[in-house]
Amino acid sequence: MNFREILKVTTFADRILFSVLTLLSLLCLIFIRSLIPASDSVEIAVDGKLEYVLSLTEEKTVAVQGLHGTTFVEIRDHRVRVTESPCQNKLCIQQGWVVHGIIACLPNKVVITIGKTGEKGSAPDAVTE
Amino acid sequence: MNTIVTITVVTATENAADRAIENAFLKIEDIEKKVNFHSPASDIALINKSAGIAEVKVSPDTITLLDNALFVSEKTQGAFDITIGPVTRLYNFFTQQKPEDLTLNNTLPLVNYRDVLIDKNNSTAYLRNRGMLIDPGGIAKGYAADRAVEILRQQGIVSGIVAIAGDIRAFGMKPDGKPWKVGIRNPRAKGTEDDIMATTELTNAAISTSGDYERFFISNGKRYHHILSPKTGRPADRCRSVTVIAPEGYLADSFSTGIFILGPEKGIKLLETLGYHGVIVDSEGKIHMTPDLRGKIEFQRNS
Q1: How is chain A split into domains, by residue range?
Q2: Please, which pLDDT band fits residue A33 given cuts at 50, 70 and 90?
Q3: How many structural domains are present in chain B?
């Protein structure tokens, strides 16, 4: 079905609806991005345990020891990417540069959280027990 | 007290902070010496030794502590009772020793806070019956935190937090203008990941937790822990942990123990009547809390 046929079979209302839905989904994308608080922390956890807390402002490559080998994480120009990973499918590498969000290498149990909120994750001042 | 004490204060200079903290520590040590159940020279030991014989003159700090404890006993209808000492002594959580029913039944009549007589004017205390023992373990740390905060404030400190083990008292705001953040221990934590069950903000108030995981042993599948019911002499088994937020440390400390014994339903009701806040993990792991705490407490996902 090409574009002209689509125009023929849809009514004006259909087209309005379609535009509204498209617009709405775009707005949602923007909205969700703003919901993830922008902060410059990079947290790397291995098998659920927090191993590194770094800053997006530093330029460095970290060799993270995962369950099956070393995952290389590079921080540069306020972005993060995985450059090398011992896993099979290399999905983490394919994800490329990430400004904020999560890069996860599940086989190697390495999870990188970029721009995690400093407020909720911060340690308490004291613990009652 | 054989526990870790941490004091954090906010001041303009490090010198001022050091001096204030030093004095607060001295006060805590001083109270420790007066009310230590195990030290033979303490006020408490003197009162215990003279039980059924004579009244003893002791320090005003000790009298205030006893007076506070009796107030909480009244409010909890005896669920919190510092005269639990003779029963406490029948347990040893290191050697896994617990009393026989007969021994326990012979000991229980000695437990009754109404047999503690104090005279505030003359600063004397008297235990009515021979063999009675005061064990201030359920209130001393909270009380010491109160006195430490008092010392800090007298020295012009406007903001700080005193934690004597898990008994915490906070005042003022942190330098970033926010209240102090306190974590509540998960009573069945599997590791460091799920160690903290929830966090809440605290200022000008105290928070304490009583849990069945602090001192315990397991015998025949049953958990024997240190929070003993004054009525039965056995470990109270309706809760895993009770956290209380109250205006003062001694209140949070002793009510968390008393409410652990009362159980979740009566406990929450009592907290509401008193205007305090609390979180209770019951014996099945279900969480109960005072309604006004909703939205003010943040539960961790992994616990």
Answers
A1: 3-35, 41-117
A2: low
A3: 1
- pTM of this structure: 0.73
B243 vs A125: CB contact, 8 Å cut-off?
A: no
In terms of C-beta density within 10 A (0-12 exposed, 13-18 middle, 19 or more buried), how is residue B231 classed?
middle
Looking at residues A79-84, what average pLDDT do you find? Answer: 92
Residues of chain B with pLDDT under 50: none
User: Which range (A101-105, A117-121, B277-281) has the least confidence?
Assistant: A117-121
CB-CB under 8 Å, A127 with B184: yes
Inform me whether the C-beta atom of residue B193 falls under 8 Å from chain A C-beta atoms. yes
Residue B2 sits at φ, ψ, to 5 deg, of 60, 40
Q: How far is B123 from chain A (nearest CA, A)?
A: 33
- A116: pLDDT confidence band, cut at 50, 70 and 90? low
- CATH architecture, domain A41-117: Sandwich (2.60)
Query: Who wins on pLDDT, A8 or B253?
Result: B253
Is residue B230 one of the residues assigned to a domain? yes
Beta-ladder partners of B164: B5, B167
Q: How far is CA B241 from CA A13, B101, B212, in A?
A: 60, 26, 6
B110 assigned to some structural domain: no
CB-CB: which of A122, A123, A128 is closest to B166?
A128
Range of the domain at B240: 172-299
Higher pLDDT residue, B34 or A68? B34
A124/B182 CB distance under 8 A: yes
Whether chain B has a CB inside 8 Å of the CB on A119: the answer is no
Structural domain includes residue B194: yes
* Radius of gyration in angstroms for the set of CA atoms belonging to chain B, rounded to a whole number: 19
**Is A129 within 8 Å of chain B by CB?**
yes
Maximal C-alpha separation, chain A = 70
Instruction: Answer whether residue B248 is part of any domain.
Output: yes
Nearest to B141 by CA among B281, B56, B276, B29: B29
User: Is-contact B268 B288, C-beta < 8 A?
Assistant: yes
Please report, for the domain that includes residue B247, its CATH number.
3.10.520.10
Residue type present at position B280: I
Q: Could you read off the pLDDT of B59-76 as tens digits, one per residue?
A: 999 999 999 999 999 999
Q: Which residues of B touch A120 (CB under 8 A)?
A: 298
What pLDDT does residue A120 have?
46
